Amino acid sequence: MNKIKEAIAEVFIIFVVGGLIGVSLAVVSNLFVIGVQWFGQQRLSSDMFNVTLGSHEVSFSSLIFLWLAAGAVIAIKKTFGIAKWAGPADSMYAVHQLNVPFNVKQGLASTLAAFASVSGGASVGQYGPIVHFGATMGIIISRLQLRKRMGFNRLPREIYLGCGVAAAVSAGFNAPIAGIIFAHEAILRHFSVRAIAPITVASIMASTVSGYLFPHTVAFKISATAPALAEVVPFLIVLSPLFALVAITFMWSLRYATKVAGSLSVPPMTLPFIGATICGVIGMWVPQALGLGVPSINEMIAGQYLVPLLVTVLIAKIVMTSACVGFGVFGGVFSPALFIGVAAGALSTALLSAFGFDDVASVVTVAAMAAVSAAVIGAPLSAVLIVLELSQSYEYAVAAMIAVMVCSLITHRLFGHSFFDRQLLDRGIDLVKGREVIALEHQVLEPFAKTDFVRAELVQPGHQVRAEMEKRQHTEAYVLDEQNVLLGKLSIYQAIECGERPVGNFMDTDPIVLYNDDNLKEAMVKVGEFVGESLPVVSRQKNIMSGSIPEGELFQAVIEIQNQARTIERD
Q1: What mean pLDDT comes out for the span 525-541?
Q2: Which tens digit of pLDDT belongs to each residue from 47-91?
Q3: Are strands 514-515 and 486-491 parallel, antiparallel or unpaired?
Q4: Comparison of pLDDT for 336 and 527, the residue scoring more
C-alpha cells in the first residue's frame, strides 16, 4: 500500500509541476512571439523615416528602430543591475552543477533584452532567450513554498529546469516531441525515468495550450513533396561538408565579433549602439536579413530567390548577427542559424537546378536548415524531429538526418560540440567532462580540513612529539611556528629517530600540501603518489595551516560526490 501511495503521489506531482510549467511557457512564449510580430509590422509599415536619394528611396526606419532597441537593452541592463546576459549556455551549466545559484533576475532581464532586440529588428533569434526563460520559469516554480508543503521537493532542480526548456521549445515550434528530446539531448544530457515523465507532461501541455489559446499557422512552410530518398542521399552526402563549413564560419564570426567588441577602448554602454548601427546600415540595403527573417526563410524554401540575392543575404545575415551578438544587442542564435542554413541550402539547390535536378531542391534546402542549426545548438536529434513535426514527412526527416549527422560530426571535430559549449569553454567550463568532474571541480577542500592533528614546535624534542602521537593514535605530526605557518611534517619514525633532539633537524621540510581553495579534482591529482596518513591544508599565500585531511576521508568525499552525480543520471 505504501508503494501505491508513493506512486500516486509521484504521478500527481509530475502532472502538477509539468502542467504548471507547460501552461506558463505556452502563454509567455506566444505573447513573446506576438509582441515581436507586432513591433515588426510597425517597423515595416513606418514611412516617416524614408529619404529620397537621387532616384532611390531609402528607409532609415530599420536604423532608428535598432537604435531604440539598443537604448532599451542598455536601460534594462542598468535597471536590473546585471553584468552580463544569460542564454542557453547558462541553462546547460546550471543543470550540471549545484554550487552556483541560478540567477533568476538575470534570466528575466535577458528575456526582456532579447524581446527589445528582436522587436527592433536586430538580426538575432527568439528561441534561445525563450529557452533560457523556460529554465528560469522552472527554477521559479521550484522555489515556491508549495514545493515543500506538497512534496514537490521530490523532484530535483534540474528536472524543473528541463521542464521549462522542453515547454519553451514545444510552444515555440509547436513540436512537443522535439521539445522533450531537446531538453534531454542539449540541456540535461542524460535520459532517466524520473526526468522524462514531468518533461513530457510540460512539453505536451505547452503545445496543447498554445494550439488552443493561440491558434496560428506554422511559421515555417514545408509543403513540397519529397522525392525518393535514393535520389537525395548522394547529393546530401556531398553537400553536408559545405553546410558544416557554413556553420563553422557563422560560429567563428560570432566569437570574433565578441573578441573585437571586447578589445575596443570605448565605454561599454556604446557597444550596443555600434552593433545596432552596423546591423541597421546593412539592413537598409538588405532588409530580408533583418529580424527573424521568417518570410525570407519560407521564400527561400519555395525557391523564390535568385543566386545573387542568396549570396547577399547569406553574407549579410552572418555579419549582422555577429555584430548584434558580439556588441551586446542581445538575442539568440538559433533563428539566424535556421536562416543561414536555408540560404546555404538554397544556393546548393540553385547549383543542382542548373544541372537539371529540380526535384530535390526543397528537401535539400530543409536538410541544410536542419544541419546548420543542429551544429550551432548541438542538438542533432532535436533538429531532425523539428523537421519531422513541421513537415509531417518521413522522407524530409530522414534526409535531414543524413545532413545533420554528417554536418554535426565535422563541426564537432573542427569547432566543438556546439556554440553554447564553446561559450562555456571560453569561461573555463567543459561540459564534456560530465557531472562528476564538474562537481569535483566545484567542491573546495577547506570544509574537509580537520583541526585535530598533532602539532609540534620547531625546537620540541622528538620523544615528546612521539608521546603525543601515541596518546592520540596518530602516526604524523605537523611542525608550525607561532603564526601557524607550516614548517614541515614529522612521521612517527622520524620522531623515534629524533629522540631528545629538536624535531626541526629530522622533519620533512617539503611535504605534499593541499591549498584551501584547491578543489577535489586537483587534490586527487596531487595525492596520486602520496603515501601516508594525512595531508596538510594551508592557505595559498602565507602557508598558514587550516587543518589536515586524512587520505581516506578525501577519497570518501570524492566517492560521495560521484555517487550523487550518478544518481541524478540513473534515477
Answers
A1: 84
A2: 666 666 666 666 678 889 999 999 999 999 999 998 889 999 999
A3: unpaired
A4: 336
For the chain, state the CA radius of gyration: 29
Helices (H), 327-360: 334-354
What are the residue ranges of helices labelled H in 427-530?
435-442, 462-472, 492-498, 520-526
| 410-468 pLDDT, tens digit each | 999 999 888 999 988 888 888 877 777 777 777 888 888 888 888 988 889 988 989 98
538 vs 545: CA distance, rounded Å: 4
CB atoms within 10 A of CB 161: 28
Query: What does each C-alpha distance from 161 to 188, 190, 332, 434, 546 come to in angstroms?
Result: 9, 14, 19, 18, 38
Q: Under CATH, to which class is 2-213 assigned?
A: mainly alpha
The pair phi, psi for residue 438, each rounded to 5°, is -65, -40
What torsion do the CA atoms of 490, 493, 498, 500 make, to the nearest 10 degrees? 110
Residues 487, 504 contacting (CB under 8 angstroms):
yes
- Asked whether the CA dihedral 220, 88, 310, 286 is positive or negative, the reply is positive
Kindly state the average pLDDT of the residues 2-10.
74
- Residue 534 phi, psi (nearest 5): -155, 170
CATH no. for 229-432 = 1.10.3080.10
Residue 361 confidence (pLDDT)? 77
List b or e across 378-398, with b for residues whose CB sees 16 or more CB atoms inside 10 angstroms. Answer: bbbbbbbbbbbbbbebeebbb
For 386-402, what is each residue's pLDDT tens digit?
Answer: 888 888 888 888 989 99
Comparing 2-213 with 439-570, is the CATH topology the same?
Answer: no
Q: What are phi and psi of 376, to 5 degrees?
A: -75, -45
Which amino acid belongs to residue 44? L
- CA–CA distance, 8 with 523 (Å, rounded to integer): 44
Sheet holding 534-538, edge to edge: 514-515, 534-538, 545-550
Distance CA 48, CA 61 (A): 8
The structural domains of the chain, with segments of one domain joined by +, span 2-213, 229-432, 439-570
Ramachandran area for residue 122 (φ above 0: left; ψ -120 to 50: alpha; else beta): beta
Task: Indicate the pLDDT class of residue 218, thresholds 50, 70 and 90.
Answer: low
Q: Which of 375, 435, 562 is nearest to 93 (CA)?
A: 435
Distance CA 117, CA 129 (A): 11
CA atoms within 13 A on the CB side of 26: 24
Asked if residue 150 has pLDDT above 60, the reply is no
- Residue 43: per-residue pLDDT: 80
- Could you tell me the pTM of the whole model? 0.84
CA–CA separation, 54 vs 36, rounded Å? 33
Cα separations in angstroms, 421 against 248, 393, 428, 532: 14, 31, 10, 40
Kindly report the CA angle at 440 between 437 and 442, in degrees rounded to 5?
A: 110
Per-residue confidence (pLDDT) for residue 534, from 0 to 100? 87
**CATH fourth-level superfamily of 439-570:** CBS-domain (3.10.580.10)
Report the C-alpha gap between 101 and 97 in whole angstroms: 9
